Amino acid sequence: MLDVRNVDLFYGASQVLRSVSLKAQPGKVTAVMGRNGVGKTSLIRAICGRLPVASGQILWNGTDVARWPAYRRARNGFATVPQGREIFPQLTVRENLQTGLACLPRSERRIPESVLDLFPVLREMMDRRGGDLSGGQQQQLAIARALVTRPRLLVLDEPTEGIQPSIIKDIGSAIAWLRDRGDMAIILVEQYFDFARDLADSFVVMDRGEVIQAGLREEMVESDVRELLAV
Ligand SMILES: Nc1ncnc2c1ncn2[C@@H]1O[C@H](COP(=O)(O)OP(=O)(O)OP(=O)(O)O)[C@@H](O)[C@H]1O
């Protein structure tokens, strides 16, 4: 289980996270919501080790990993699907997936069939270049690249951004399937309310670097949260 406690984060003198706490449990989706610029991506980067926190704890099954480098967290089960996907356009789909394997021991560096079963379109496109895929296919590739490490914590940053509705549905089904498998904690950063609500077990809403609302999905009052998300 991931237990983020009172994390503060700064860019230079500017504080972008203020005592942020959240939990993520295996078999559950924690949705992180909030308008543009409230600190969601910074929070994800802090969790995955791409940005150093100034204070607070990031407990992973009881161990504080807040000072661990990103590669060590990756080896211990953390995987991220970054905002904007960060696909290598010149590499093939297969090569993009292989980049995800780097944190695994040599003997385990293979692309699991189950990942391709989840996104069959990728199997058909293994030798195509990443840059030739549609936005939705690239998003599926980014999720698959995270999954090849067989993560125990999957963090997705706005996976529906700029994606057409039919593929959003496929991505939602894939996330639900991974959640229901039960061995992975999932953090879903999302501004698309309906998508987040359909998948979430619990939620946090952020504003200006702080968590201003949090609770279980049943406690998520649609009108309140929509208001907090409105620009
Ligand atoms: N590298 C950086 N240096 C300085 N300030 C930054 C940097 N990256 C982000 N910020 C600022 O930190 C704040 C939080 O940004 P962040 O990207 O975490 O928000 P967000 O909620 O993920 O927004 P979005 O949905 O637009 O990605 C914003 O005010 C942003 O301008």
What does this structure look like?
- There is one protein chain.
- With 231 residues, this protein is an alpha/beta fold.
- The protein has one domain (2-89, 151-229): P-loop containing nucleotide triphosphate hydrolases (Rossmann fold, 3-Layer(aba) Sandwich).
- The protein has 9 helices and 10 strands.
- It has helices at residues 40-48, 70-75, 93-99, 113-118, 120-124, 135-147, 165-181, 193-199, 222-229, and strands at residues 2-11, 14-24, 29-33, 55-60, 63-64, 78-81, 153-157, 185-189, 202-207, 210-216.
- The chain starts with a strand and ends with a helix.
- Residues 11, 16, 34, 36-42, 83 line the site of adenosine-5'-triphosphate.
Detail the topology: elements first, then pairings.
Blueprint: E1 2-11, E2 14-24, E3 29-33, H1 40-48, E4 55-60, E5 63-64, H2 70-75, E6 78-81, H3 93-99, H4 113-118, H5 120-124, H6 135-147, E7 153-157, H7 165-181, E8 185-189, H8 193-199, E9 202-207, E10 210-216, H9 222-229
Parallel strand pairs: 3-8, 3-9, 6-7, 7-8
Antiparallel strand pairs: 1-2, 1-4, 4-5, 9-10
Helix pairs in contact: 3-6
Bound molecules: adenosine-5'-triphosphate (ATP).
Residues 11, 16, 34, 36-42, 83 line the site of adenosine-5'-triphosphate (ATP).
